[in-house]
Every structure is written in structure tokens, then in C-alpha cells.
Specification:
This protein is an alpha+beta fold. It is 25% helix and 16% strand. The protein has helices at residues 4-16, 56-69, 111-120; strands at residues 21-26, 30-32, 43-45, 48-52, 95-96, 101-102, 145-147. The strands form 3 sheets. It has a 3-stranded antiparallel β-sheet with strand order 3-2-7. Strands 1-4 form a two-stranded antiparallel ribbon. The two termini are 16 Å apart.
Length: 148
């Protein structure tokens, strides 16, 4: 929605300015098909790597503020949206409360997260030590995920 590439550029710029954080890397942008029951256009996905002193809750609050600043409105689950920022990993930590689970519970099932994550952090592992590269098929079909 609303020029996805420009939305991504604005989000990356905002992530570079997060307090108590250092922006380390941004993956390439990837075109992917939507996931879920709602018919909609495809998405552009990317992963950024940060070093942060923010707690997981404070980081989530900052990400939600970026979404709101970019006109994210939560009306329909899995529906069209201007931006969706998630915390995939938080170092080697495991975190769980009523509104946040880290590692992201669907991380190992989503190539649109794994491929850009492994592009910038090929040695990424789950907190248990399992390499995330194990969850990516050795051959990716171009119609599943492709660089922009």
C-alpha cells in the first residue's frame, strides 16, 4: 500500500535514528507474495540488524511508533498495511509476554524473513543454537521470493 518501496525507505531511515541503538545492516529488498487469507498485492520485505540497549518491550514500542508515523492502521488481521515491523531475534535471548514473543514464532516458516536475514547475518541461529540456514531450501523458486 502507498508506494511500498518508499515506505521501506522511510522505515529504514527511522530505524537508523532509534535511540540507544546502532544501525548495522539492511538487507536487499525482496518482493514476496502475501501470506494469509486476505487477497491483496504482494509485499516488499527486508531485514535490518541493530545493536540496541533498548529492552525488547521498548524496542517494540519504538517499532509500533514508526508504523503509526507511516499511517499503519490495524483493522484486518493479515490485511493490507503500509508497514509491518517485527522483532525476529534479540541476540540470543528468548522473550515471551502477552504481546511479544522472541524469537518471532513464525520465523522458521517464513522465507520472506529468513532469506533477507541470512543475507546480512548468515551465521544467525535460534537461541537453542540451531542455524536458521537449515530452514531455507537449497533452491528457491523465483516466484516465491526475489530481490527488487
Amino acid at each position: 500500500m502507498s508506494d511500498p518501496k518508499a515506505q521501506m525507505d522511510r522505515a529504514v531511515k527511522a530505524l537508523r535514528l532509534l535511540p540507544e541503538s546502532t544501525f548495522l545492516h539492511c538487507s536487499s529488498y525482496y518482493h514476496t507474495a502475501p501470506v494469509g487469507p486476505v487477497a491483496q498485492d504482494g509485499f516488499i520485505n527486508a531485514v535490518v540488524k541493530l545493536s540496541t540497549m533498548l529492552t525488547p518491550r521498548d524496542l517494540l514500542a519504538a517499532l509500533l511508533a514508526i508504523e503509526v508515523a507511516q499511517n499503519r492502521v490495524r483493522t484486518l488481521r493479515f490485511g493490507p498495511r503500509t508497514l509491518d515491523l517485527d522483532i525476529l531475534l534479540y541476540g540470543e535471548d528468548v522473550y515471551h509476554d502477552e504481546s511479544l514473543v522472541i524469537p518471532h514464532p513464525e520465523l522458521t516458516n517464513r522465507l520472506f524473513c529468513l532469506v533477507p536475514l541470512l543475507e546480512i547475518f548468515p551465521e544467525a541461529c535460534l537461541p537453542c543454537g540451531q542455524a536458521l540456514s537449515e530452514f531455507v531450501p537449497s533452491v528457491l523458486l523465483p516466484n516465491i521470493i526475489r530481490k527488487c
